[in-house]
Amino acid sequence: MAKQANLYSFPDTTSLAPALRAYVISCQEAGIARHGVFKVGISGGSLPKTLAQALLPEPSSEADTVKWDKWEVFFCDERAVPLDHEDSNYALVKKELFNKIPAGSPQPTIHPIDTGYLDDAQELADQYEQVLVRSFASRDSVKLPIFDLLLLGSGPDGHTCSLFPGHELLRETSAWVAPIEDSPKPPPRRVTLTLPVVTHAVRVAFVATGAGKKDIMKEIFEGDSGLPCTLVNMGTGERCSWFVDAAAVEGVSYPRRPFSL
Ligand SMILES: O=C(O)[C@H](O)[C@@H](O)[C@H](O)[C@H](O)COP(=O)(O)O
């Protein structure tokens, strides 16, 4: 049987954060060993706040260091709004995480969308795909970009990135970045990494916390739901790890693993 996604459950976010940190740093080190940088995709929602809790504390040792200057940050999905708009994932991640890296410390390289194309979601997606092409080498030489890590959230309907349940975008097979004009979660116009890109990453980590996630976690982990999160689990198997708190998985029948790298 194919190996399945790892489910790591912690009593609360405070105990989840150090494990998430250790996991992200191990992906960072693998990326640096592979190509000298760490290519990571970040989502919006509640994730950036939890990431800040995990990554901003001072390192306890050399091996525990977040090497921000090696980080190349991309957005797993982004809303078609200006970069200072309250709906912008870029603005959110900056506010919650990157603006809190002490000035004078090494800083990450961040790749936002090109806001010159906000009126045309297809063009916005194509332009962002070109950002990936430049970073990951040309589409001719690589069929799909290989992120070192994608950090994802799960919506209460089982969506991840801007891949929504039952949406035709789930059948996309060739684009790396796709537009969506009818997102059920506002705002409606967005761009998102496609499912083949998500499942091609070296590692994928979901962070899901709070009792509000309980019902959808049951569907994702217990059934053959076809939900976007389930499709990611199926497409990545053991390369996928869920960092959850106890409230989010209360009553979910799926084996928890003790966290280890
Ligand atoms: O731009 C977005 O809408 C997010 O990237 C989205 O995919 C998010 O990760 C989930 O909706 C989970 O959000 P919560 O963590 O807030 O539940």
TrEMBL record:
Cross-referenced Gene3D superfamilies: 3.40.50.1360
Keyword Lipid biosynthesis tagged: no
InterPro entries: 6-phosphogluconolactonase_DevB, 6PGL, Glc/Gal-6P_isomerase, NagB/RpiA_transferase-like
Entry annotated with the keyword Transcription regulation: no
Keywords recorded for this protein, A-Z: Hydrolase
Function statement: Hydrolysis of 6-phosphogluconolactone to 6-phosphogluconate.
The protein, known as: 6-phosphogluconolactonase
